[in-house]
Amino acid sequence: MPGYGRGQGKQRGRCRGRRWIEQLPETTYFKPHGPQQPFTNTIILSIEELEALRLVDLEDLTQEEAAAKMGVSRKTLWNDLQRARKKVIDALVNGYAIRIQGGDYIQR
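Request: output the structure for the sequence above.
Response:
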């Protein structure tokens, strides 16, 4: 039957909704200090992931308060926050650069 099964161009789950952010970062690239390496792996952190980190870890908002500010559910904020924390820890532990870019957001 047409339109059923895998490989038919259908996405799983719901579309990712836009998050509201309050500010864009002035600095969007960080790299480890140390001996120059010819190639450094780069972790991409989205604007929304950075906003989740900023609201919860820097501004000390609860996840519920941060989710309301971003216009998403608490579970969605938690997912963004966990993904962001994992990326930042990966970069710090393994000496990767961090680039902040992209995402689907609306600036307030």
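Strands lie at 19-21, 29-30, 42-45, 97-100, 105-107.
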